[in-house]
């Protein structure tokens, strides 16, 4: 199974993050599912993701990654200098996640939200579960 990124489909920041990844994922490695979708809910159950996880989630090679670990693992597959961010994996997660948690906690307040999940454009729709 190709890596899957689960994201909050009504969060503007999360939507922008997905667009950012789509624009830089030249090999079309990643698949996407909103947390609100049936596919997203099935994956959450299948991988026993706790209900209180407030994070973008990466499912890769049968493992689940959260917060900065997910973001950094995603970055290593992106075009350009974004791959270099993966070096921050050497920083212990509690330290890396301080900034991640700050953004996650305030993302709706700072960036707003939509009434419903986005409908991907036809050229990338096949990458959404």
UniProtKB/TrEMBL annotation:
Highest taxon of the source?
Answer: Bacteria
- Fetch the InterPro entries from UniProt: DCC1-like, DCC_oxidoreductase
| Name listed for the protein in its UniProt record | Thiol-disulfide oxidoreductase DCC family protein
Q: What organism is the protein native to? A: Mesobacillus jeotgali
């Amino acid at each position: 199974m190709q890596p899957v990124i689960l994201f909050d489909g009504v969060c503007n920041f999360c939507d922008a993050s997905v667009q950012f990844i789509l624009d830089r994922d030249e090999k079309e490695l990643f698949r996407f599912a909103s947390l609100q979708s049936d596919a997203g809910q099935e994956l959450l159950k299948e991988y026993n993701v706790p209900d209180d996880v407030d994070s973008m989630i990466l499912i890769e090679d049968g493992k689940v990654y959260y917060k900065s670990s997910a973001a950094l693992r995603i970055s290593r597959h992106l075009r350009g200098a974004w791959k270099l961010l993966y070096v921050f994996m050497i920083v212990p997660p509690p330290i890396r996640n301080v900034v991640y948690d700050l953004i996650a906690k305030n993302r709706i307040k700072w960036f707003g939200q939509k009434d419903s999940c986005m409908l991907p454009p036809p050229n990338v729709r096949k990458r959404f579960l």
